[in-house]
């Protein structure tokens, strides 16, 4: 017979309580988009200036 802890193998229980799933916030999404878009903009601008 399988107990309750063994059924929920993706989450770990602490004192019988399970933590809620991690969720992204809008602020984290904006920060991630900014961190990714700035270097891409710089690289594309350099390519445009050098080759076009």
Largest sheet: 2 strands, antiparallel
Helix content: 55-70%
Count the beta strands.
Answer: 2
Oligomeric state of the chains present here: single chain
Strand content: 5-15%
Structural class: mainly alpha
What is the CA–CA distance across the termini?
69 Å
Mean pLDDT: 81
Rg from alpha-carbon coordinates = 22 Å
Low-confidence stretches: none
Can you count the helices? 2
Strand order within the widest beta sheet: 1-2
Shape: rod-shaped
Question: Could you please describe the fold and organization of this structure?
Answer:
The model has no long low-confidence stretch (mean pLDDT 81). It is rod-shaped, with a radius of gyration of 22 Å. The protein has helices at residues 4-7, 26-51, and strands at residues 13-14, 17-18. Strand 1 (13-14) and strand 2 (17-18) form a beta hairpin. It has a domain at 22-52. It contains 2 helices and 2 strands; from the N terminus they run αββα. It is mostly helical.
Features of the shown structure:
52 residues, mainly alpha, two-stranded antiparallel ribbon, 2 helices, 58% helix, rod-shaped
């Amino acid at each position: 017979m399988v107990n309750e802890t063994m059924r929920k193998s993706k989450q770990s229980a602490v004192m019988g309580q399970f933590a809620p799933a991690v969720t992204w916030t809008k602020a984290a999404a904006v920060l991630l988009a900014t961190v990714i878009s700035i270097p891409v903009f710089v690289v594309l601008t350099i390519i445009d200036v050098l080759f076009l």
